[in-house]
Design a protein that fits this description.
432 residues, alpha/beta, 9-stranded mixed sheet, 5-stranded parallel sheet, 13 helices, globular, binds zinc ion
Length: 432
């Protein structure tokens, strides 16, 4: 991280906003000095003023599911462009997924990604792969990655298919004190499928992936969490029965957490009728009943985290026919607005799902998702909850353009993002 000498760093006041954090809500100015919140209260002043009139001042958002594509697919995204999009979306921390080339499955690649993130406009953390090359055959050297601070391991893009190997990974993870995150997908049931198996796949003549392919792995991993005591985080949950199983597991006191993506709680498989691969994602968009169940799961706290699964792909690859195009869509710059626009939840609960809950899942709760109080790190996001705007891929920082929300009007716009006290986004503009 670039450091400016303390004496040259101006003091900043975020003026006139409503402060919301895990402890509640109050109207207050926030003074930031040298990367730290110095004071929170009425009528404060400083060298520089950031206008927060009409805005909410919140802990910066944390994404536990970001594909930064570097190393290996820099034409789709780099750590820097992904992090800039994150900052524009109000995020101060992202957890990179390991399905890069090479996979993030060793200390050497972990070091490489952390190094690339050092000058990025948000904190870049990385997950590590559970298995070597994400091939699902032998455990990756999780201990050497954990020593570098990796707290979450996943083969995301694929689920660990072998029951016995998954059990061993969980036992190993318990010893290391880390969390396993799972992309729940039974390969044998999904093989050859490109969208949700149901009414629309039948009509469109596109091979489908049944909901059961996700649910079987959720069921298995809940059983294995019970057996081993391992913390397991379920990634991008997409079906009503997955939500129901997680609700029961949480009620039974098992160490289980889960995330839902904005696209899974806003879009259905009917979108695939356009044959536009921008709607191709994995797990696939499901039914309206599944969308309702995800929204209910978010509202009652069963699913405590909203994650983007930000998955950039170049226009060339997304212009392929539906069955040949890669799955995935952009998410970092639209997640907050989609949650505010679409979810019938109080703003504080939306922020819990976007900030302090995911901070705990990622193991970064010492720096992110903190209360806004004197002495805390100044990782903050200031947004206007009422401002409406139209989603335009061309306006995004990402190197890719694959947003399914092109032209959609949404509510909730990030005005400023502060990373360790530095305004990396001011008045909606990236500062670096
Ligand atoms: Zn995934």
């Amino acid at each position: 991280m670039r450091r400016v000498p303390v004496a040259d760093r101006p003091t900043i006041v975020i003026k006139g906003g409503t402060v919301i954090d895990a402890s509640g809500e109050r109207v207050a100015d926030v003074v930031v000095v040298d990367g730290v919140v110095k004071a929170v209260g009425p009528d404060l002043s400083a060298d520089r003023t950031l206008d927060a009139a009409g805005c909410i001042v919140a802990p910066g958002l944390v994404d536990v599911h970001t594909h930064l594509r570097e190393p290996g697919k820099e034409e789709a995204e780099t750590v820097e462009t992904g992090a800039r999009g994150a900052a524009l979306g109000g995020y101060t921390a992202v957890l990179a997924m390991p399905n890069t080339t090479p996979a993030i499955d060793s200390a050497a690649v972990v070091r490489q990604v952390l190094e690339l993130g050092r000058t990025a406009p948000c904190d870049v953390y990385t997950s590590g792969a559970i298995t070597v090359g994400r091939a699902g055959e032998q455990l990756a050297p999780m201990a050497e990655m954990a020593e570098l601070g990796v707290k979450v391991f996943t083969d995301d893009g694929a689920g660990v298919q072998d029951n016995r190997l998954m059990r061993r990974a969980m036992e190993y993870a318990v010893g290391l004190g880390v969390t396993l995150a799972q992309h729940c997908e039974d390969d044998a049931l999904c093989g050859g499928g490109h969208m949700h198996e149901g009414e629309w796949s039948a009509r469109l003549g596109i091979a489908g992936q049944p909901a059961e392919a996700e649910e079987l792995m959720v069921m298995r991993d809940i059983a294995l969490a019970r057996l081993t005591g391992c913390r397991i985080h379920f990634q991008h949950m997409s079906t009503a029965r997955s939500v129901a199983m997680i609700r029961d597991a949480v009620a039974a006191g098992l160490p289980v957490t889960a995330e839902a993506t904005p696209h899974h709680f806003t879009l259905t498989h009917a979108e695939c009728a356009s044959y536009d691969p921008v709607f191709k994602v994995n797990p696939p968009l499901r039914t309206a009943a599944d969308v309702d169940a995800l929204r209910a799961g978010l509202a009652d706290g069963t699913i405590a985290t909203i994650a983007t699964d930000h998955a950039p792909h170049t226009p060339e690859s997304k212009e392929l026919p539906f069955d040949q195009a890669p799955p995935g869509m952009l998410g970092l710059e639209t997640a907050l607005a989609l949650a505010l626009t679409e979810l019938d939840m109080p703003v504080g609960q939306v922020l819990a799902a976007l900030s302090w809950n995911p901070a705990r899942v990622a193991g970064v709760e010492d720096r992110h998702g903190r209360p806004i109080a004197a002495g805390e790190p100044a990782n903050l996001c200031v947004f206007d909850p009422e401002a409406t705007w139209t989603v335009r891929a061309d306006d995004m920082a990402s190197r890719s353009r694959n947003t399914p929300y092109e032209g959609r009007e949404v509510r909730g716009k990030v005005r400023h993002t502060l990373l360790h006290g530095e305004p990396v986004v001011m008045a909606g503009e990236p500062q670096r």
